[in-house]
Amino acid sequence: MTILVIAEHENGAVAPATLNTVAAAAKIGGDIHVLVAGQGVGGVAEAAAKIAGVAKVLVADNAAYAHQLPENVAPLVAELGKGYSHVLAPATSNGKNILPRVAALLDVDQISEIIAVESADTFKRPIYAGNAIATVQSSAAVKVITVRATGFDAVAAEGGSAAVEAVAAAHDAGKSAFVGEELAKSDRPELTAAKIVVSGGRGMQNGDNFKHLYALADKLGAAVGASRAAVDAGFVPNDMQVGQTGKIVAPQLYIAVGISGAIQHLAGMKDSKVIVAINKDEEAPIFQVADYGLVADLFEAIPELEKLV
Ligand SMILES: Cc1cc2nc3c(=O)[nH]c(=O)nc-3n(C[C@H](O)[C@H](O)[C@H](O)COP(=O)(O)OP(=O)(O)OC[C@H]3O[C@@H](n4cnc5c(N)ncnc54)[C@H](O)[C@@H]3O)c2cc1C
Known about the structure:
It comes from Pseudomonas brassicae. By secondary structure, the chain is of the alpha/beta class. It has two domains: 2-166, HUPs (Rossmann fold), CATH 3.40.50; 196-308, TPP-binding domain (Rossmann fold), CATH 3.40.50. The chain is 27% helix and 27% strand. The chain has helices at 16-28, 42-49, 70-81, 93-106, 210-220, 228-232, 263-266, 286-289, 298-308; strands spanning 2-6, 9-10, 13-14, 31-38, 56-61, 86-90, 110-114, 116-119, 122-127, 132-137, 143-147, 163-166, 196-200, 223-226, 253-257, 274-279, 292-295. The strands form four sheets. It has a seven-stranded parallel β-sheet, with helices on both faces. Strands 14-13-15-16-17 form a five-stranded parallel β-sheet. Helix 2 links the parallel strand 4 (31-38) and strand 5 (56-61). Helix 3 crosses helix 4 (93-106) and helix 5 (210-220) runs parallel beside helix 9. Bound molecules: flavin-adenine dinucleotide. Flavin-adenine dinucleotide (FAD) binds next to helix 6, helix 7 and helix 9.
């Protein structure tokens, strides 16, 4: 049994979600190979070769894979994937863009966002916004799986010494071209990788009031998230949304401020190690999942908290 893990990488570095995906592969068992597809990714391949538990790194370094356009990467993964028992990718935007195409090309079902491995063919995955956990058994010849990073503790980024092998195949589907990108710039940690997340909801009342959360977050070294209501109201940008249709986070500490605790929000944060909720309504459902709850007006509680940090 040999497993192919598709590396997520950005700006010449292996993204943390890759380490969680390798951890899921290790739970399945067998040899683990990692595919690094991109252009000018020699450094990424070297870093991937050091990941604990990886036996081989395949590098597809070609202009066709620059910017990792899924139309080009998917045929590569499908071609290579035929020789593997499992193909795994993190359930990130990129992984979710590539793997369904791979599953279609291999004519198998995709198993999405696994959070646990029962055996080589049986996996657990959340359904109904995390309100139920399905156990899925697959008889597919190649099991194509996206991995929810928060479900698996990352393997060590250092300690391995895998062989690095170049892949000659170049698939340019000619269907899409990279035009440009606008990246959100922030000095704060990335939401899904942050150890502490402070999130604001509709209770913040407007975007300007988020300055209170930014000030607290900067003292704590935290990322700032938001509920969908806060995003839909235009308080903050869409990439800050936590939840079923936003980002899934599981930090050491999640502070929910002025958030009621709708199931769709909980779906994105309830695996956080410690949850703190600040809400003026003592009946708010967020208190049912919170380890620590403060019934208070956030406009009094947050400045006070900031002074104490
Ligand atoms: C298909 C679907 C997908 C969805 N996906 C998501 C998702 O990914 N993420 C998400 O978050 N939601 C999602 N939602 C929306 C979700 O159902 C809720 O509407 C949303 O989470 C509510 O956001 P909120 O808690 O900020 O607002 P509200 O529910 O309005 O809660 C605001 C809270 O702030 C408190 N408050 C108000 N003023 C103060 C104050 N001064 N001090 C302290 N507390 C105060 C109130 O007591 C209240 O509890 C989705 C919904 C659907 C149907």
